[in-house]
Amino acid sequence: MENVPNIDHIDVNTVTEEVTKIFGKNGRSKLKALVKNEKVYSNIDKLKEDMEILADKSAFDELLTFEKAYFENFESFNSNHRSGHMVLTGFNTMYSRSNMATMKSVHSIKNDDNVYQYEVQLNSNGPMRIGWATQKCTFTDEQGVGETENSYGFDGYRLEKWSMSNATIYGRKWRVGNIIGCTIDLTHKSMEFFNNGQSLGVISEELLNKGDLTYFPALTLSEEENVTVNLGGRPFKFPVLRSNPIIDSPIVLINYFRQLEKNMIALIDTQISLNKMNVSSILSYSKLFFKLYSDFIFSDEE
């Protein structure tokens, strides 16, 4: 298994689902039989050789190293931007371990004419405030987002919007699994929150200042509440029209996969008909390919 490309964090259910889409029921056994069928290739070494030539192994390893470093080191949140006991795990999932804990992103929006968005997946549905804050906002275990000057938040548990310590009725009740979209528009001095892509209403805030203040995604969670935040490093579940992510996801490896998939299909297509192939996602299939490449083709198991 040396020098076999490895894609981490591939969910077994996702792999099984994608294999089924491509090869039908019993896809795992069909695929294994396919790649070991001498009518396709006389031996596995030849298949491995052709794939590594197409993949340009050294270039792939370099790209993969770069992309993994991007995801592992490109922090969205860290302990220097929090108050209270907030536990931050992988993929920007955060848990509150104190009565009130607040976390502010290390990335801000740009002071320009664009609308900016981020998303929050609710892993619990209790009291939380999701919104925006400036660099100078200072939070405590008693004051969270919306309770300090120049911070604004939405609480879908209490159905409130918060700013300058004032709460007014807003939104609709949120539930576990909901995706809360948050946008800010400095040009029109407004922000907007969404629940699974449905707008909860535009909020006008005359104090939003494009010239002097810089805004960051910020969240306050009550004890035991937890969420997963996406600033744009992964595709949004419900992208808002004409909005921009806080951070951009890397595309070098994605583009590489797109080209590689074309080459791989062309390679195999010379040996076997793939008329029934229905690839719903280039990236998903490419990740799947290398997972299967590792698990099946070079496995000693029969």
TrEMBL record:
Keyword Manganese applies: no
SUPFAM superfamilies: Concanavalin A-like lectins/glucanases
Cross-referenced Pfam families: SPRY (PF00622)
InterPro entries noted in UniProt: B30.2/SPRY (IPR001870), B30.2/SPRY_sf (IPR043136), ConA-like_dom_sf (IPR013320), RNF123/RKP/RSPRY1 (IPR045129), SPRY_dom (IPR003877)
UniProt cross-references to Gene3D superfamilies, sorted A to Z: 2.60.120.920
GO cellular component terms, A-Z: cytoplasm
Keyword terms: Metal-binding, Zinc, Zinc-finger
Domain B30.2/SPRY: 38-236
Keyword Ubl conjugation attached: no
Gene Ontology MF term list: ubiquitin-protein transferase activity; zinc ion binding
UniProt record, GO biological process: proteolysis involved in protein catabolic process
Protein name (database record): B30.2/SPRY domain-containing protein
Lineage, top ranks: Eukaryota, Metazoa, Ecdysozoa, Arthropoda, Hexapoda
